[in-house]
Amino acid sequence: MTRIRASVVGVLALALVGVATACMPPTPGGRSVTFKADRVTVNDSQDETCVLGICANRSDEPFVFNIAFRVKIGVPGSAQAYLVGDRDNAVNSLGAGQSANLTGNQQAAVNFGGITGLDVTDLLNPDNKLEVVGVYTWANEADQIPIGQAATGTASVLKDALNSTLATADLSNFDASAIVNLIFDNIGSAFGILSANIPLFGLGDDNLGGAIYVGIGAQGTLGDLINSVAASFTIPNIAIPVVELPPDITGGGIFTLNGTKTFNQSFSGAGGTHTYQFSATPA
């Protein structure tokens, strides 16, 4: 687990806000952020079959699942998780070296609305709870048997796991680095719970791998600080042993409510490689 020991503690100096800040009412909700897949490239066809130098089935049908989740740190029972995406939205016949801009349902877009955006001073009010949103992304290639049931089942277990971890965590250190580490320590624990409780789903559409993109409901100075930490933070690989589904996490990123972030992620597995461009856009 990567840890950041940045010297950003001082920027959160409580002396700037005074005791009166603790009496401020909770910051009203109203912010939102949309996470979606924008583009896919087939680098190496997963469906390609070669025998004695003769190759067939050189095109793939890529599609993405986004298992959306949200939870408020220190608020028991606040976790939600659900699946966005469908194999029916797969891009048809995309050959090796080809790319496609994704539109409509192909983007598996997740909109997180009603986020209470918190700044540095807001953290001093114990009624203000920092919210974490995000997606557990699966890169897939359509085959004969759907794996939507596996993704839906994973979302159900992930919700319970987040309720056992982040929803009961103690956010008492307001340093941006400590916040990021707290979140990923608990997410790592949540996926440990998930891997111990997920059923075996069997064969289906081919899965090339997983990634996790975590949004922190921070804005203003706090958002800038967390973005600074995120720039040098390495998303930890999270192995989910024994099973093929859900997939291991081998990448991802962090975003806040301060500006659009874009991510490029390569997924290699099941004999193929697909690269996606994702975006997280706050409003």
What does the model show?
The chain has 283 residues and is α+β, with helices and mostly antiparallel strands. The chain has helices at residues 148-164, 176-197, 220-230, and strands at residues 31-44, 49-51, 54-56, 59-60, 62-72, 80-84, 94-95, 99-101, 110-115, 131-141, 206-216, 249-255, 261-269, 272-282. The strands form 4 sheets. Strands 1, 8, 9, 13 and 14 form a 5-stranded antiparallel β-sheet that branches. Strands 6-5-10-11-12 form a 5-stranded mixed β-sheet. A hairpin with a 2-residue loop joins strand 13 and strand 14. Helix 1 crosses helix 2 (176-197). It is globular and about 65 Å long. The two termini are 31 Å apart.
Per DSSP E runs of 2 or more residues, the count of β-strands stands at 14
Helix % is 10-25%
Please give the alpha-carbon distance between the first and last residues.
31 Å
**How does the helix and strand content classify structurally?**
alpha+beta
* Secondary-structure element string: EEEEEEEEEEHHEHEEE
- Count of helical regions: 3
Give the rounded overall mean pLDDT.
88
The geometry reads as globular
Strand content: 25-35%
Low-confidence stretches: 1-27
Gyration radius, to the nearest Å? Answer: 20 Å
Described by strand count, sense and barrel closure, the largest sheet is: 5 strands, antiparallel
Primary descriptors:
single chain, about 280 residues, alpha+beta, five-stranded antiparallel sheet, five-stranded mixed sheet, 14 strands, disordered N terminus
Provide a compact summary of the structure:
The protein starts with 30 loop residues before the first strand and ends with a strand. Helices cover 18% and strands 35% of the residues.
